[in-house]
Amino acid sequence: MLLVRSVLFNIAFYTNLIVRMIVLSPIYFLMPRKAAYRIPKAWAASCNWLMAKIVGATFEIEGLENVPEGGCIFAPKHQSAWDTVALLPWQRDPVYILKRELMWIPLFGWYAAKQKMIPVNRGARGKVMVDVMNRTKEEMANNRQLIIYPEGTRRAPGAEPQYRYGIARIYRDVGVPVVPIVAHWGLFWGRRKLIKYPGHFKVRILPPIAPGMDPDAFYAHLVETLERESDRLLVETVAANPHLPLPPSAVKRLAELKAQTAA
């Protein structure tokens, strides 16, 4: 049954994406940028609905009151394709720094360009990165919310962290609050996994880190906060969903946390 539900979800997910892009593109590209954002937000909400109705996976959000009114940086743990879109309906005007290759994808790249997403060549240095930072400052000046995954790529639940320092540089140069976010999406929709699992879990939006800290101190504080709260939420999520088959990284981390508690 899990396989059947997962296959049905995948078919519905991609059909929903393709049909919406084709049918709504003329409207999307004629609308002003901010108004047009309602179309991808509605698509993201429909993805959450499909996960709930077909797979049986649902979530709730804690801490929406922690999101600042003006420009800020969201710093989520990144585990799944799901976490790249699931929170979009609750974000006012998000902007992503993304691989430039994604901008070359027909329709998707055009959608992203209209929303002024910031492409970057990951291997670039010097002037290219200066241009990326200038673009970032421009978008943040318009009270947008920048989405940055501090680890840079998806990591399995409970995996040893591999944070990158780039977010500390952006924090230093942009001067806005950083909002850490933890959730264990990967237990329900794993990286490059066909099977999706039912259950209910929490997304936790943590109190913002105010601008003005020394970058090194900020980086250490962000990593410590994300890892501490991610561990705490891993224990809660697994306890609330005892049916889940856990990846080895989660099994190992839970054993380490249990040993720490017993010591």
From TrEMBL:
GO terms for molecular function: 1-acylglycerol-3-phosphate O-acyltransferase activity. It comes from the Bacteria. Keywords: Acyltransferase, Membrane, Transferase, Transmembrane, Transmembrane helix. InterPro entries: Plipid/glycerol_acylTrfase (IPR002123). Pathway: Lipid metabolism. SMART domains: PlsC. The keyword Glycosyltransferase does not apply. Residues 72-186 form the Phospholipid/glycerol acyltransferase domain. One of its GO terms (biological process) is phosphatidic acid biosynthetic process. The chain crosses the membrane at residues 12-31. This is 1-acyl-sn-glycerol-3-phosphate acyltransferase.
